[in-house]
Design goal:
The protein is of the alpha+beta class. Helices cover 30% and strands 26% of the residues. It has eleven helices and 20 strands.
C-alpha cells in the first residue's frame, strides 16, 4: 500500500483545537534570514541554570520566563537580589514578577523599569536598589527589546561573533533619592532584530565575579573572559541548546569558586533557531480499523518519534512490519525499561512511565542525580524539542479503570493533558493533542 500524501497529516495537525476551541497555529514565527533575505520558521528557545551561594538553601537570584497568550511575545526577566538567601530571593522575586506582569500588560519597558526602581527599597549605606534586573521582551516578529539595570551586560552572539549593540543610557531619578547617598540610577536600553542562529546570554554578577581573589582571577572572571568562554563553547558545539549553554556557563563559574559559590550564580540563554519537532504516540485507537491510519501518521512524521504503551507499540510494529527489541541497559525497578523499533527514538511502557515524566516536569525537569530510565530520557527529548504533538488513542484500557466510567476520567488522557500543560506553561513549548 502506498503511503498517502504528506499534506494529509499536516492538514490533520493544523485542525487540532485548543482548549478554548480556537485553531492552534503550527508556525511559531517567521523572521528574515540575514544572508538570503528569505523568511525562516524560527523558534525562541529559553533556558536557564542557577546555583545558590554556598551554605544557602534559597536562591537570591530569580529567573522568570513566559509566553504572553495575548500576542505571543516571549518575556524573560533575570533579577539579582542584594546579598543572598531568602531576603534577597524575596526582593528578586518581587522585581522579576513586577517586570514580567508590566510588560505582559503592554506597559512600556521604560515605564515599567521606572516603577520598579521607585518601588524597591534602597540600601541606605550604598544607595543602590536591593535588586537588579535584566528584562527581555521578544515580539513575534523577533524584535528584541532589552532593559538592564546594574546586571552585567548581556552577550549577543551571531555567527560565532559577539555583536556589540547600541545602547541608550537613561538616568532615572528616584523619589527617595534624598534619603540615600547620591548615586544616579542608569538604565541601559537596547533594541535589535534577531536573526536565525542568534544567541542572547545574560547572567548575574555571580558569573563575572566568580574566582575573585584567586591567583587566576584576582578581580573575578570578568565579562571579557565570559564572552571568550561562550564563543569557545558554541564553536565546539554549534547546536548546543539554550539550557545546556546556560548550565555550562554556571558550572564554569562555580569551578572558579572551587565549587563553593561565593554568590548566587544564574545564567539565562535565548536561542533563535529552527524548531525541533517531536511526535508522541500513546494508546490504541478507539476502533481497530484505524490502526493503519495511526501507522501512516507515525511513518510520515518528520522529526523525533516516541511510542508510549505496549499495545500501541505492538500495533505500529504489526502495521509497519518492524520488530521491537527490549533494551535493558537502563534498568530501573520503578520505571519499565525502554525498547527499540526502527523509526522511533524510543519505545516505552505507557501510564507508569508518563506519570513519572509528569512528576519530573513538575520539579523543573531536572534529571541530574537521577538514575537514567525511560522517564528521564523522555524528559530530555521534551526539553530538547520545541513543538510536541501527542496522538492519543481513546480506547480505554480495562487494566487502568472500570470501562463503565465516563470517558473523561480515562487516566491516559489526564496524564497527557497534564504533561502538555506543563510543557506549554512552564517550558514555553508548543503542544498539540490529537485524539484518535
Amino acid at each position: 500500500m502506498s503511503p498517502p500524501d504528506k499534506v494529509v497529516f499536516q492538514d490533520m495537525i493544523d485542525s487540532v483545537p485548543n482548549p478554548e476551541g480556537k485553531q492552534q497555529p503550527v508556525l511559531v514565527g517567521e523572521i528574515l534570514d540575514g544572508q538570503t533575505g528569505q523568511k525562516q520558521e524560527t523558534f525562541v528557545e529559553v533556558g536557564s541554570y542557577q546555583l545558590c551561594k554556598h551554605n544557602q538553601r534559597a536562591e537570591g537570584d530569580v529567573f522568570l520566563s513566559q509566553k504572553n497568550p495575548k500576542d505571543g511575545r516571549v518575556i524573560t526577566t533575570l533579577s539579582d537580589g542584594l546579598g543572598s538567601g531568602i531576603k534577597a530571593g524575596v526582593l528578586a522575586t518581587l522585581t522579576a514578577t513586577m517586570a514580567t506582569k508590566f510588560i505582559a500588560n503592554d506597559m512600556s519597558i521604560r515605564r515599567a523599569a521606572e516603577i520598579i526602581m521607585n518601588t524597591l527599597p534602597v540600601c541606605k549605606d550604598r544607595g543602590i536598589s536591593y535588586a537588579t534586573f535584566t528584562l527581555v521582551d521578544i515580539e513575534p516578529d523577533a524584535t528584541v527589546r532589552i532593559m538592564e539595570y546594574d546586571n552585567p551586560p548581556y552577550v549577543l552572539v551571531r555567527q560565532e561573533t559577539v555583536i556589540e549593540p547600541i545602547k541608550d543610557i537613561t538616568p532615572i531619578q528616584r523619589k527617595d533619592a534624598s534619603t540615600a547617598p547620591k548615586r544616579e540610577a542608569l538604565l541601559h536600553y537596547s533594541r535589535y532584530q534577531a536573526r536565525p542562529g542568534d544567541r542572547l546570554i545574560f547572567f548575574s554578577d555571580g558569573v563575572t565575579q566568580s574566582g575573585m581573589g584567586s591567583p587566576c582571577y584576582p578581580f573575578g572572571w570578568g565579562s571579557g573572559n565570559v564572552q571568550d568562554f561562550i564563543l569557545r563553547e558554541i564553536h565546539d558545539n554549534q547546536l548546543v541548546s539554550a539550557r545546556e549553554l546556560a548550565r555550562t556557563v554556571v558550572q564554569e563559574a562555580s569551578l572558579h569558586d572551587g565549587y563553593r559559590p561565593k554568590d548566587d550564580i544564574t545564567c539565562g540563554v535565548i536561542y533563535f533557531r529552527k524548531p525541533r519537532d517531536l511526535l508522541v504516540v500513546t494508546g490504541p485507537p478507539l476502533h481497530k480499523e484505524r490502526d493503519s491510519e495511526l501507522a501512516r501518521i507515525f511513518n510520515l512524521f518528520e522529526g523525533d518519534k516516541i511510542i508510549c504503551g505496549g499495545t500501541t507499540a505492538n500495533i505500529l510494529s504489526r502495521e509497519l512490519e518492524r520488530p521491537i527489541r527490549v533494551n535493558l541497559k537502563d534498568f530501573d525497578p520503578k520505571v519499565p525499561p525502554c525498547s527499540q523499533m526502527e523509526g522511533a527514538a524510543m519505545v516505552t511502557e505507557g501510564i507508569i512511565t508518563m506519570g513519572a515524566v509528569s512528576e519530573i516536569l513538575e520539579h523543573d525537569g531536572d534529571t541530574e542525580g537521577m538514575k537514567p530510565n525511560a522517564a528521564t530520557r523522555i524528559v530530555e527529548h521534551f526539553l530538547n524539542c520545541d513543538r510536541i504533538w501527542f496522538v492519543v488513542g481513546t480506547k480505554i484500557n480495562e487494566a487502568h479503570q472500570d470501562p463503565t466510567m465516563p470517558v473523561e476520567l480515562e487516566i491516559r488522557r489526564n496524564v497527557v493533558k497534564k504533561i502538555a500543560a506543563l510543557l506549554q506553561d512552564k517550558y514555553l513549548k508548543e503542544t498539540h493533542i490529537q485524539y484518535f
